Structures are given as structure tokens and as C-alpha cells.
Amino acid sequence: MQSLRIDLHSHSTYSDGVLTPAALIERASNNRVTMLALTDHDEVGGLAEAAAAAREAGIGFVPGVEVSVTWAGLTVHVIGLGIEPRNAPLTHGLAGIRLSRGLRAVRIAQQLDAAGIPNSLAGASRLAGDAAVIGRGHFARFLVEQGQAADAKTAFKKYLGMGKCGYVAHQWVSLGQAIAWIRGAGGHAVLAHPDRYRLAPLQMHALLDEFKQHGGQALELYGGRRANPLPMLRLATHFGFSLSAGSDFHAAAQGPADLGDIPPFPDGARTLWQDWEVLRSAA
Ligand code: AMP
Ligand code: MN
Ligand code: MN
Ligand code: MN
């Protein structure tokens, strides 16, 4: 098993992370990360700031994005790595997703209102700031602030998760569309945190089959240093995917992993970055 300090999945204040892109790079540097990708939800606005800070800090930087997708009625996330941030079809497509996010936020707030929790749209907007479009993560922080939940996880469990009073079913973009935008912008398409969708084996195979057919290239290892990488390695080998890895860092003390904490890589695993010149020198 190799132990790497590479992290290809993270969030900033441009989506539902709490650190600015520059502060994120600083934390990565303190955590001895050699290569970081910023992958905000449906947004590339933080990439320039992060790239400049990474240059300054001497960290390798991969421009990325995490695209919200609806597949078979479920929300799944596809990460684009090494994208050209100014690519027009990609940026226009993401702008469309953010617009629909904004409309969903209004509906979430209406439902929370009906459940006796007023002013959540204003609260979530304040927490999102000017740069970000609102996600459930901002509503979760608002609910914690209001004393309605002890932490973000509890806020999802009580209010924002599927079937709860603040949950709004939403149609994101198709799997094929997301992969086409990513590949069209010169990026690699990675299926984010596949084990978090809680799919039965047959469904997982159907998703991976379709992901492959549309041009998907890698599966993400996720879950921090103690996660078991072998089930994902088995699937990747079966379908001919390489492996990527990321912490999905949003904030200190939220989620299973800090920046740079990724599962150990099994010897012989084909990594997404083994062919990337820039990464090989850093790894
Ligand atoms: P959205 O894309 O706005 O629907 O929000 C999805 C985001 O909510 C994810 O990227 C996570 O940051 C966060 N999230 C989802 N489920 C949970 C949970 N159970 N606990 C904490 N955060 C969660
Ligand atoms: Mn998030
Ligand atoms: Mn995700
Ligand atoms: Mn993420």
C-alpha cells in the first residue's frame, strides 16, 4: 500500500466549503499535501484564486469541479479534473445548474417555513456569501445556528435528507451531459464517492456501465485513511476504470477526512494521475 498526500476532491466558499480558496491551499500546505484539486459544486469561480495560492505555496494544483447529476432518479456526483475553467459549454452548463439550485433553495425555504422554521432563505444566503450559490450545506449550517440541530449531520437527518420536511426532489443534469461537458473541457471524469449512494450491487453495476459508456474514466477512493480501498479497486478493475482519491473536505470537524487524508492505495492499482506528467513529479 502506498501512502500519498494527494487530494483530488475539496470545497471552498465558492460552494459549501467554509475556507476561501487561498485558506484551503494554506491548510493543504500545512497538511503536507503535494497535489490538490478544488472541486466546488457546479462552480469554477474559485479556481483562479486557488491556482495562484498553490503556485505561491509550491503545491501542485488541479482545476476541478463536482457536477450534480440525476441518474435513475438518484443524485450522483461526477468530478471533472484537469478541466479548462473557461471552456464555454462547461461554464454555461454549470451556470444553468446554479440557476436551478437557486430555485430549489426557494422551495426548501418554503418547506422549512411550513415546518415552523422561518427565514431560512435569508439565513442560508448570508452563510453562502456573495460568491456561492446556495446548497443544502448552507441550510444545514443555518439550522445548527438556530439551535434546530446539533451539527450538520443531524440537520440532514432531521430536515434536509431525502424524505424529510426540508427535502425537495430535484432534477440535475444527466450523466451523459455532465461527462460530455467535462471531457469537452479537456477534463477527466471521475465518479465521486460511489459507495455513498448506497446502491445494491446490480444498481451499482448499471451505474458504472453507463458511466463507462458515456466516457467516465475513474472511480474515487474516499473516506479517509482508514477506509478499505479494496471493494472499489475490484469494481475499477472489472470495468476498466482507474482510481482517483479525495477527502471531500468542506470544513474542519465535518466529514470523515481532513485535507490530504485519503485511503491507502493498493499496490499495483492504476491511478488516474499516473499518466499525468505534472503529478508524477509530485507523487
Ligand atoms: P446539495 O448539492 O445542495 O443537495 O448538497 C449536497 C451536499 O450536502 C453534499 O455535497 C455535502 O456537502 C452535504 N451533505 C449531504 N449529506 C450530508 C450529511 N448526511 N451530513 C452532512 N452533510 C451532508
Ligand atoms: Mn458539499
Ligand atoms: Mn459529492
Ligand atoms: Mn464534494
| Beta-strand percent range | 5-15%
Number of strands: 7
Give me the number of helical elements: 10
Helix amount: 40-55%
Mean pLDDT: 94
Quaternary structure annotation: single chain
Largest sheet: 7 strands, mixed
Query: Radius of gyration in whole Å, from Cα?
Result: 18 Å
Uncertain segments: none
- Would you tell me which CATH topology of the domain at 95-160 applies? DNA polymerase, domain 1
Structure description:
This protein is α/β, with parallel strands linked by helices. It has a domain at 95-160: Orthogonal Bundle (DNA polymerase, domain 1), CATH 1.10.150. It has ten helices and seven strands. The protein has helices at residues 21-30, 47-57, 88-114, 120-128, 136-145, 152-160, 175-184, 201-213, 230-239, 277-282; strands at 6-7, 35-38, 60-71, 74-81, 188-191, 218-221, 242-245. The protein has a seven-stranded mixed sheet. The longest helix has 27 residues, at 88-114. It is globular, with a radius of gyration of 18 Å. The two termini are 14 Å apart. 48% of the residues are buried. The mean pLDDT is 94. Bound molecules: adenosine monophosphate and manganese (II) ion (3 copies). One manganese (II) ion binds at residues 11, 16, 41, 137, 250.
